């Protein structure tokens, strides 16, 4: 078989769009494909929102879509944060839809056109970790401003026996501090894993069909069927990961607002 | 055994954790469905908890995947 080595990590390479690096005080500040796709995602989100922001009494399809999206986030916030959660709805909304759009743009099969290669912004931990630290920072700021020093009673669960405190408090503290890492890691790894899977099966198709043997052809066709299935699964994972990110952020905000 | 061979075996062993996480995720959704079919009225209210349980067990499988990738691509 004319098998070359499959390099599944090549698709995640961050490189300057214009082909040259710009240095500023020893930092590389060139406009990369990652930055380009963040701009694309933000622009798509902007178009989606502006197109639906009409005040028609009988909403058209687009307005109905946007209203459904706002209502979905609104009910998630009111169920999970409860009283006083309304003011976080814009943040949760931006978070959910930025992640959802970035995930979906990442799996667009535009690479069939030569020279085009979509880049999954959320498959880099630098991006997801920044989002996670935003959430964590807002939780800390809200908790400390609203409750002051009482915020630390979050680490002392109600009704636990006092002699258990030396064990429970450090465990609660660690589980609190680990939150931004688990939040960022989950999204990043889920997206990376999906893209590696697609890349590997895609290489199987190309190598199987180009080998010219009947067995290779069979492998290629089976792998193509697998790609179709995995792509459908990926769409589901995109939505679930965005939902989980927004859901966990609103739950953490609930802790900060209400202290259990 | 060469170092490279040992590396690949280690990555394969790390991948076992992903299968175990699959058991966990299946358990989460299976138990949810079992309860939801007995009391469909209460099911919608518990979807948030369903996804929290899913996220927790999913994360542990993903960490196993991270370990495998670290062994393959980072350890030299």
TrEMBL record, chain B:
<keyword id="KW-0406">Ion transport</keyword>
<keyword id="KW-0812">Transmembrane</keyword>
<dbReference type="InterPro" id="IPR000454">
    <property type="entry name" value="ATP_synth_F0_csu"/>
</dbReference>
<dbReference type="InterPro" id="IPR035921">
    <property type="entry name" value="F/V-ATP_Csub_sf"/>
</dbReference>
<keyword id="KW-0066">ATP synthesis</keyword>
<comment type="function">
    <text>F(1)F(0) ATP synthase produces ATP from ADP in the presence of a proton or sodium gradient. F-type ATPases consist of two structural domains, F(1) containing the extramembraneous catalytic core and F(0) containing the membrane proton channel, linked together by a central stalk and a peripheral stalk. During catalysis, ATP synthesis in the catalytic domain of F(1) is coupled via a rotary mechanism of the central stalk subunits to proton translocation.</text>
</comment>
<dbReference type="GO" id="GO:0008289">
    <property type="term" value="F:lipid binding"/>
</dbReference>
<keyword id="KW-1133">Transmembrane helix</keyword>
<feature type="transmembrane region" description="Helical">
    <location>
        <begin position="6"/>
        <end position="29"/>
    </location>
</feature>
<feature type="domain" description="V-ATPase proteolipid subunit C-like">
    <location>
        <begin position="9"/>
        <end position="71"/>
    </location>
</feature>
<keyword id="KW-0813">Transport</keyword>
<keyword id="KW-0138">CF(0)</keyword>
<keyword id="KW-1003">Cell membrane</keyword>
<feature type="site" description="Reversibly protonated during proton transport">
    <location>
        <position position="58"/>
    </location>
</feature>
<dbReference type="GO" id="GO:0046933">
    <property type="term" value="F:proton-transporting ATP synthase activity, rotational mechanism"/>
</dbReference>
<protein>
    <recommendedName>
        <fullName>ATP synthase subunit c</fullName>
    </recommendedName>
</protein>
<feature type="transmembrane region" description="Helical">
    <location>
        <begin position="50"/>
        <end position="75"/>
    </location>
</feature>
<comment type="similarity">
    <text>Belongs to the ATPase C chain family.</text>
</comment>
<dbReference type="InterPro" id="IPR038662">
    <property type="entry name" value="ATP_synth_F0_csu_sf"/>
</dbReference>
<dbReference type="GO" id="GO:0033177">
    <property type="term" value="C:proton-transporting two-sector ATPase complex, proton-transporting domain"/>
</dbReference>
<dbReference type="InterPro" id="IPR002379">
    <property type="entry name" value="ATPase_proteolipid_c-like_dom"/>
</dbReference>
<dbReference type="Pfam" id="PF00137">
    <property type="entry name" value="ATP-synt_C"/>
</dbReference>
<keyword id="KW-0472">Membrane</keyword>
<keyword id="KW-0375">Hydrogen ion transport</keyword>
<dbReference type="GO" id="GO:0005886">
    <property type="term" value="C:plasma membrane"/>
</dbReference>
<comment type="function">
    <text>Key component of the F(0) channel; it plays a direct role in translocation across the membrane. A homomeric c-ring of between 10-14 subunits forms the central stalk rotor element with the F(1) delta and epsilon subunits.</text>
</comment>
<dbReference type="GO" id="GO:0045259">
    <property type="term" value="C:proton-transporting ATP synthase complex"/>
</dbReference>
<keyword id="KW-0446">Lipid-binding</keyword>
